[in-house]
Amino acid sequence: MFHGNNLFLTTDRNRLFFMKTEYQLEIIGKIRRLREFNRCSQAQLAKYLGVSDGQIGNVESTKYPQKYTLSQLHKICTLFKTPIQHLFIDENEYIDNHIDIIDLLIQKIIRYEE
Questions:
Q1: Phi then psi for 80, rounded to 5 degrees?
Q2: Checking CA distances to 41, which of 7, 15, 47, 49 falls within 20 to 30 Å?
Q3: Is the pLDDT of residue 16 over 50?
Q4: Per-residue confidence band for 97, with pLDDT thresholds at 50, 70 and 90
């Protein structure tokens, strides 16, 4: 079911669990592909970020609401030598000279955080 930008799942009539938005899943998917491309396991990434082994699995799963923090995204980009803007800004948006890239990046980070 959808509620605003959030997917949600109910387990009973009294409890509502908010899940990740489609945009958050898109960013998390990019991170997963980066992790796999660099032959980094979930456990290795968890150790690098200082979180439990299962935390990365929860972030990558659609079943749990956990997502990466902005600080974690920055650390991941540093680890994989990828500019953070590559997570948020598509190649087509770079081509459009009328777009203020910094403003667009901030807007997309805010969208991820919602």
A1: -95, 10
A2: 7
A3: no
A4: low
CA separation for the pair 114, 106 (Å, rounded): 13
What residue has token string 């032959």?
39
User: What mean pLDDT do residues 24-41 have?
Assistant: 97
Contacts of 42 (CB under 8 A, 6+ apart): 35, 53, 56, 57, 60
Per-residue pLDDT, averaged over 43-50, amounts to: 97
Question: Is the pLDDT reported for residue 3 higher than 50?
Answer: no
What whole-number distance in Å separates Cα of residue 78 and Cα of residue 72?
Answer: 10
Measured distance CA(21)–CA(105) in Å, rounded: 18
Task: Tokens for 81, please give them.
Answer: 């030598």
Q: Which two tokens stand for residue 77?
A: 């980009």
| Unique residue bearing structure tokens 């439990």 | 52
